[in-house]
Amino acid sequence: MNLSLLSVAVLVMSGCTDDEFKQNNNIPKGNGIVFGANASYNGGPQTRTEYGDYVTDTDGNKSQEIKWLSTDRVDIYSPTSPTLKKVEYGITNVNESQAYLLALGDGLQWDRTSSKQSFYAIYPSKESMSNEAVKNVVSFDNGVLKGYIPVNQQHTITKGGTTGWTAKPNMDYLYMAAVQKDYNIPTADAENDGVSLHFVPLTTTLELTIEGPTEAPIASINVFANNGENIAGYFTCDLTKVGTTSGTNNDLNCDYEQSATVRDMISISGYYDDGGTQKPLELAAGESITFNVFLLPHTDLTNISVRVAGFNTASKTMSLAGVTLYPHQKTCVKLKAPQIAKDGVNNWITGMDDKVLISQLSI
User: Fold this and answer.
1) DSSP 8-state secondary structure symbol assigned to residue 133
2) How many other CB atoms sit within 10 Å of the CB of residue 83?
3) Backbone phi, then psi, for 18, in 5-degree steps?
């Protein structure tokens, strides 16, 4: 196995800082409280919901730019808001360096009977999730997120880009949270009465880069736990137990919800659309493709392997020896495409006698 482990990657954005938000007198006026939005990995540089390019600072630290999309939605819960307690908010890009969250209807209101107010936010909002099956099992009630990491994770694979191929993940499975507990309520006549929310990722992320050339087309990729540890399924995060998501001590603890179903593998299809025809992925020499795989965030994950299945041929399994995937962080791994002979044998299913008649087949 040729494996290159990069440093754990934190993410950056070019958005507004807290100071910029407070100093800006042109905050858009929404129906209720307006929120400024930025995000990061546990106090590091900052993140948004579309992966961008990697950059390296003068100290050699590698980070990644991610941007909010205009279609992004978040749910914000405030237990002492005098009217609605939970509201869906959308992104408003004021300019290239600032973004705000405006209510998609009646917004949260200030609790004028108190001096402090708490806010708990989750990305993505339940109603904005694209996978209906996942959407139906996700909830965010009273500051507690019940999330779900699916076994089959969609990537939109396209030919092109700087490495020859691009794989865009479904960012719904990233899950991010922001907490502002006991925020000082501004006076009724305050000119700047918005709240800055700092989002941090909840899920564990494996960024897996496969470098060409491929000997046989790739039909699928599986990431699995060798020890049977669940890496997909249900999890809960109680945001009310977190003081704030700004800074380095976020104390974001998530719990795995036990299930009778073993979910120790995540599967990614290697097929892409080529003019209306589905084809398995083939990498030429010098080409590579990067997948972002989202896993449960309840524990450090070790003993992880990657299996690459060739189209109509054999598969190869590579152990990520020495790699640990940490909750709420991204770990980057590079692998050489395994050499799978086109005439190899795929033993995942055995043949039957030609004279056997099939009356029913279950997959």
Assistant:
1) H
2) 10
3) -60, -45
